[in-house]
Amino acid sequence: MNAKRWMRTFVKMYHSVRLLLCGEGYRRAEYIRKHKLFGSMGENCYWHPWKMPGDPKLIFIHDNVKIASDVTFINHDISNALLNTKYKTNKFKYFTAPTEIFDNVLIGTGTIILPGKKIGPNCVVGGGTVVCKDVLEGTVVGGNPVRIIGNFEDFVLKREL
After folding, report:
1. What is the pTM of this model?
2. Fewer Cβ atoms within 10 A, N terminus or C terminus of the chain?
3. Catalytic residue among 35, 48, 62, 76
4. Residues 78-103, buried b or exposed e (16+ Cβ, 10 A)?
């Protein structure tokens, strides 16, 4: 492993340990924002996962986003390795795509977000969902594959005291 790659790996591991030590999700989000670990991290966010995403600079999180435990962000794939070997070429490039989560979003435990997806404002993503397409503004979604199961306004009414 070359020195530059080793250093990136070390820095990622260091920040992962520091996130663990933060203990609480609001403090983790603040640590991510302070150290500019993601493409962006808005205000009043909650980050419960303990692991750092593989490509953190490709994650853009707006304001008031709450992310529960074990949420996985996938911003790349390795199909190029398979295809370049199969066709004995180097013409297939490493694929990456950014993820963007807009204002006022809740993402439930165990959700997997695939490359290049956008989650619109005022959305709830149910636990265990596989986000394989963009999520429209004001929706409640869940399942594998993701599907609309309600709207944000009805969700708000159910949670009011």
Report:
1. 0.88
2. C
3. 76
4. eeeeeeeeeeeeeeeeeeeeebbbbb
